[in-house]
Design the sequence.
């Protein structure tokens, strides 16, 4: 069955009590895991985030070792997996020190083959988003993973388009279909508002679904605006649970669940036509 990941990321804007509430809501809504992001603001280069207020949010949402350990422990206590995205070696070192066994490499670091190979050496499960890549870069990553038995066993590769929020016409599931021909463990990281893209990915056999998650779309920060809410996550979870049932083979004839209708309803409004 597919793994459903609620990407809290930095949507808790540095408020650990809010982060805990999000963890509980994600668990109650059917998520299999929650995910945060590990960075240190001192490594952040200059960019648009200096103009739109994101740098300040990044600084507030900075998870050092102590804070992440606290959230991870809280998640474990509430029976939901907690893991994180990393952006550099420092992030890998921190998670490895805390004995995390899962790690995520986000799209905008997927070009960094040294970071990917280090992740495979340190963790049991390596999830890589494949957005924001040139075709040659994508092929190179695929070749490295496919040719290494250990990497193949550990990897989950996610189709992703790095646009926030993502418009439906840009979801590009052609790329998802291509990835499925090259590797068997393909998931989807979606940035479209709502859950329709994730439902479609599940119907196509995605092994993992990652969606940004919040409990209030009016909270500060870009990601909170398009993140899904608990009721949407619950709908996604229910669909995931039922998906296997939808494909259950029952043959071509009358089903036992139809017998009452067959016996009592057929022909009640008309005579049989010879």
Sequence:
């Amino acid at each position: 069955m597919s793994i459903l990941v609620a990407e809290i990321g930095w949507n808790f804007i540095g408020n650990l009590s809010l982060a805990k509430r999000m963890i509980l809501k994600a668990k109650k809504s059917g998520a299999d895991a929650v995910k945060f992001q590990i960075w240190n603001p001192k490594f952040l280069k200059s960019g648009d985030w200096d103009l739109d207020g994101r740098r300040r949010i990044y600084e507030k949402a900075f998870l050092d070792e102590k804070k992440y350990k606290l959230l991870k422990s809280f998640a474990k206590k509430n029976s939901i997996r907690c893991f994180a995205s990393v952006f550099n070696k420092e992030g890998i070192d921190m998670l490895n020190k805390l004995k995390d066994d899962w790690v995520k490499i986000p799209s905008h670091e997927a070009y960094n083959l040294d970071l990917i190979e280090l992740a495979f050496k340190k963790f049991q499960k390596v999830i890589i988003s494949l957005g924001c890549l040139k075709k040659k870069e994508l092929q190179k990553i695929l070749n490295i993973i496919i040719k290494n038995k250990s990497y193949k066993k550990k990897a989950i590769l996610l189709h992703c388009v790095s646009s926030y929020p993502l418009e439906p016409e840009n979801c590009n599931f052609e790329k998802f279909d291509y990835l499925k021909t090259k590797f068997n463990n393909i998931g989807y990281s979606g940035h479209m508002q709502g859950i329709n893209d994730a439902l479609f990915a599940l119907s196509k056999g995605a092994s993992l679904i990652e969606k940004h998650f919040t409990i209030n779309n009016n909270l500060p920060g870009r990601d909170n605006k398009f993140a899904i809410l608990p009721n949407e996550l619950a709908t996604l979870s229910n669909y995931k649970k039922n998906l296997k049932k939808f494909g259950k083979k029952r043959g071509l004839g009358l089903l036992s669940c139809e017998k009452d209708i067959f016996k009592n309803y057929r022909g009640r409004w008309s005579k049989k036509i010879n």
Observations:
- The CA atoms of residues 177 and 204 lie 8 Å apart.
- The chain is about 40% helix and 15% strand.
- The chain has one domain: 3-264.
